[in-house]
Specification:
alpha+beta; Alpha-Beta Plaits; 6 helices; globular; 2 domains
């Protein structure tokens, strides 16, 4: 018996979030079903975090104990043979026996995709938020700069555990424009922090977009951070634009 760490990518569109629930299809439930085909006898895998319904990932990290007598390359191939097409194991490694993908993590990175268009564009809206009126990029970037550092983000979300800390350290928060020849270009918000509150990224994006559209001034971000808990930031960006990109560990996830 050994503990393994697997990095997962998934399209969250058809899943009711990551966390296993009765009578609904979730990423965790689908992954555990694939594991059982390999002889797994556990009751629940460990995960770096729980993405919401409709949220995607390219760097979710899970861990589990398994009696596997073959190379890790074979484990990766076997998992992908049983996983649904919306989920794919990207890498597999044996890790130390007490490794925990959530509690051992030192940072996480999310990306949120938007594009500005007045008329619906179905092929892009599966993975991005279509916003209108158009946003001003400079206003977006100026507002995002206030997020870096250690702050109390009570106004933007709730902790995973009742009574838990709402202070988080944001290492980076910035916007960039990406164009592949399509019009309009996609605007990508990337934020990395030691941890995130529930709905924190989506509330931040909603506020930043309103600032970018000129409906609010950039200074309101600092006001929310300076007076945590006085008001909950109203509005939340839709889930399909959000992707969990990566989870970082101090020692390469304790790999052996």
């Amino acid at each position: 018996m050994a503990r393994y760490q697997v990095k997962l990518a998934y399209d969250g569109t058809s899943f009711q979030g990551f966390q296993k629930q009765a009578r609904v299809v979730t990423v965790q439930g689908a992954f555990e079903a694939a594991l059982r085909e390999l002889g797994w006898k556990g009751s629940s895998i460990l995960a770096a975090g729980r993405t919401d319904t409709g949220v995607h990932a390219i760097g979710q990290v899970v861990a589990f104990d398994l009696d596997w007598q073959h190379p890790t390359e074979a484990l990766l191939a076997a998992l992908n043979a049983y996983l649904p097409r919306e989920i794919a194991a990207q890498s597999a490694a044996r890790v130390r026996d007490d490794f925990h993908p959530r509690y051992d993590a030192i940072s996480r990175c999310y990306r949120y995709h938007i594009f500005c268009r007045e008329v619906r564009y179905p092929l892009r809206e599966r993975y991005a938020w279509r916003v209108w009126p158009v946003v001003n990029f400079d206003r977006l970037e100026k507002a995002a700069q206030a997020l870096t550092g250690t702050h109390d983000f009570t106004s933007f979300g709730t902790p995973p555990r009742s009574g838990g800390s709402t202070r988080r350290t944001v290492m980076g928060a910035s916007w960039r424009a990406v164009s592949d020849g399509r019009e309009p270009p996609e605007l990508i918000f990337e934020i990395s922090a030691d941890a995130f509150l529930y709905h924190m990224v989506r509330r931040l994006v909603h506020l930043l977009v309103r600032i970018g559209q000129g409906r609010l001034e950039a200074e309101i971000v600092s006001e929310y951070l300076a007076h945590p808990g006085q008001n909950l930031c109203q509005g939340i960006a839709p889930p399909q634009g959000l992707t969990l990109v990566s989870v970082s560990y101090p020692d390469e996830a304790g790999g052996k």
